[in-house]
Write a structure and sequence with these properties.
about 25% strand; about 30% helix; about 120 residues; five-stranded antiparallel beta sheet; 2 helices; globular; alpha+beta
């Protein structure tokens, strides 16, 4: 069963350690998110889809402080920040609120529409 949550960027000590470790590895290993490395620091709110039984994140969407979608993963050659991390989630993670599947899917599809629009503008 899939669960969908939204949470503001808040990091407790344990998560900070994991994130810090991941960021150090990102500097050493090939980039897991070549299109979004410069966008991750802009993210202020995350929408996540995760497996309720395993806690493993399957898809993620990052929103900036204005609520604009700045990244989604997995997408093209981008594995994702949470989808590629050892963190496991539950409904109680990060003081998250549960959102509907439709809310998540609408945001997921909106990113594609915005990306296609940007590509059309750049290619004119």
């Amino acid at each position: 069963m899939k669960t969908y949550i939204q949470f503001e960027e808040q990091v407790d000590k344990e998560t900070f350690k994991k994130v810090f470790f991941v960021r150090i590895l990102e500097r050493i290993l090939p980039k897991a998110n070549p299109d979004f490395e410069d966008k991750i620091d802009e993210v202020r709110c995350w929408l996540l889809e995760f497996d309720s039984e395993t806690g493993k994140v399957q898809r993620e969407i990052g929103l900036d402080k204005e609520g604009h979608i700045v990244l989604k993963a997995p997408f093209r050659e981008n594995y994702g920040f949470w989808t590629d991390s050892p963190c496991l989630f539950s409904k109680d993670s990060f003081k998250a609120i549960e959102i509907s599947k439709d809310n998540f899917e609408d945001s997921w599809e909106l990113f594609d529409k915005l990306s296609n629009f940007e590509n059309e503008i750049l290619n004119e």
